[in-house]
Specification:
The protein is an all-alpha fold. Helix content is about 50%, strand content about 0%. The longest helix has 19 residues. It is flat, with a radius of gyration of 18 Å. The two termini are about 15 Å apart.
């Protein structure tokens, strides 16, 4: 049984505001969201409205959803989606599968997901 990444193993961090409405402060999902918000808040290439909203989320005055709903962030994500779609169209099936695997499991050597691994169960 897999642990729920939205629940903090030690319980929710007292006094720390949630940045994700459905994940406890201190949970694995919360920690990843805070890492993303911190990167967004410092990225000089990111629109100022996104940086400010990310800082507000880290301070407990907004959430990651609020950041994602800023027009500048939405435009950035649309462009990223178009670029990804074009890149995937230029790949062969093996390359697309490598991208899919990296997306699902993270980067790195996935030689353990060959026919002798858990891949058959999927």
């Amino acid at each position: 049984m897999m642990d729920d990444p939205s629940i903090s193993p030690e319980g929710e961090v007292p006094g720390q505001p949630r940045v994700l409405g459905t994940a406890q402060a201190g949970s694995p999902l919360d920690l990843r969201a805070r890492e993303l918000l911190a990167r967004l808040s410092r990225d000089p290439q990111m629109d100022e409205s996104v940086r400010n909203r990310a800082q507000a989320a880290l301070a407990g005055r907004a959430t990651l959803r609020d950041v994602a709903q800023t027009p500048a962030f939405a435009a950035r994500m649309e462009e990223a989606g178009r670029l990804l779609k074009a890149a995937l169209a230029d790949m062969d099936d093996e390359q697309r599968e490598a991208v899919r695997t990296a997306f699902l499991y993270g980067p790195g050597d996935r030689s353990d997901t060959t026919d002798s691994g858990d891949d058959r169960a999927r």
